[in-house]
UniProtKB/TrEMBL annotation:
Domain of life: Eukaryota
Protein name: Uncharacterized protein
């Protein structure tokens, strides 16, 4: 059965929301597509995504260490000189899923069809990978999934490295489309422009084929919970005026980049308005009393919403260590709606990009 698609959450800046989106979108996708198996590769060093998927930092600390560092074992196996890279790559017994765990076996809040190749077991010392070796590793992982009897969807999470690390380069080699979150400010855009230039250069040299599916303007402040239209893009909330002004300025710069870096964006757009509609998304600042317990307890928004609906209650209470969180149903539903809208755009744009 085919590997349906592969997407990397990438940004050469830390704390832009890559891991949050990886956690929430992979969980929601798996919940929505029960006929498909979802593989998440945590290619970051500290393994924040791994810890969230396995139930949060506190719960993960109680699990056996062997559950962590799967991605390191996978790639270190390829580097063992006594067996040789070629024998590892083309061994008839190689199965990338031997290095994955079914997450629901350790955290029942996650859909049963989501699998993880974990990170976070120990600090890694990355050796530069020759381009040929990296291509071969990526090709073998892809062909292993292609040869499975199951339909697979791949998501990769990466570190916010200023220049792409060897592990991030593997993510680019595995994924032909990237989702790039960043804060809505000129400084983050300035650094992201550097990243886009690096990606374009790597594409021009034939080292990767990754294109940017869309940019997520993250942590945008909300003025009111009312839909608004922004240059043909329907937003589920109304941002503050200053955020709208910054959004206008940043999108103008981003569109200019897309025109100059030919082929980098999946949807470059014939006009600025076309580009904004197809290649950008706006995500509001999510409520802490929903986001924090979700991350700390390894409880995806989709499961949180399912439990709320099943309870018939108007609020939920979450206990995370010594901290207690209370959230009303409308707050939880607003957060879930934000992710759902982003996921819907992701699926629609991915399909259009694949057809193109």
């Amino acid at each position: 059965m085919p590997l349906q698609s592969a997407h990397v959450f990438a940004s050469h800046i830390g704390h832009t929301g890559k891991t949050t989106l990886s956690f929430q979108m992979s969980s929601y996708y798996a919940s929505k597509h029960s006929d498909c198996s979802v593989l998440v590769m945590d290619l970051s060093e500290e393994g924040d995504l791994t810890k969230r998927l396995l139930g949060g930092v506190a719960a993960a600390s109680q699990l056996t260490e062997s559950l962590f560092g799967g991605v390191f074992r996978l790639l270190s196996a390829a580097d063992k000189r006594e067996t040789g890279l070629t024998s590892w790559l083309w061994s008839s017994t190689f199965n990338v899923l031997d290095h994955a765990v079914r997450v629901a076996d350790h955290n029942p809040a996650v859909p049963p069809n989501l699998f993880l190749i974990s990170s976070g077991s120990w600090p890694r010392h990355e050796k530069p990978l020759e381009d040929e070796a990296r291509r071969a590793i990526c090709s073998r992982i892809q062909s292993s999934l292609e040869g499975s009897s199951t339909n697979w969807k791949l998501f990769c999470d990466t570190d916010g490295d200023r220049r792409p690390s060897p592990f991030t380069m593997i993510a680019y080699g595995l994924c032909n489309q990237a989702i790039v979150p960043l804060h809505l400010n000129q400084a983050d855009l300035d650094r992201t422009e550097t990243m886009l230039g690096v990606l374009h250069d790597l594409r021009s040299r034939g080292e990767i084929q990754t294109q940017v599916l869309f940019i997520v303007w993250n942590f945008v402040k909300c003025l009111k919970d009312e839909e608004c239209e922004y240059k043909g893009l329907m937003l589920p909330f109304t941002p503050t005026k200053v955020c709208m002004d910054i959004l206008n300025s940043c999108n103008k710069r981003l569109f200019k980049n897309a025109q100059e870096l030919e082929g980098l964006f999946v949807h470059s757009g014939a006009s600025e308005e076309d580009f904004i509609q197809s290649s950008t998304a706006v995500l509001r600042q999510l409520a802490d009393n929903v986001l924090k317990p979700s991350e700390e307890l390894g409880l995806p928004f989709v499961e949180m919403t399912n439990r709320l609906t099943a309870s018939g209650k108007k609020s939920m209470k979450f206990q995370s260590g010594e901290v207690s969180y209370d959230a009303k149903s409308d707050t939880i539903e607003t957060v879930m709606s934000s992710i759902k809208i982003l996921e819907d755009k992701f699926e629609a744009m991915s399909l259009v990009g694949r057809d193109a």
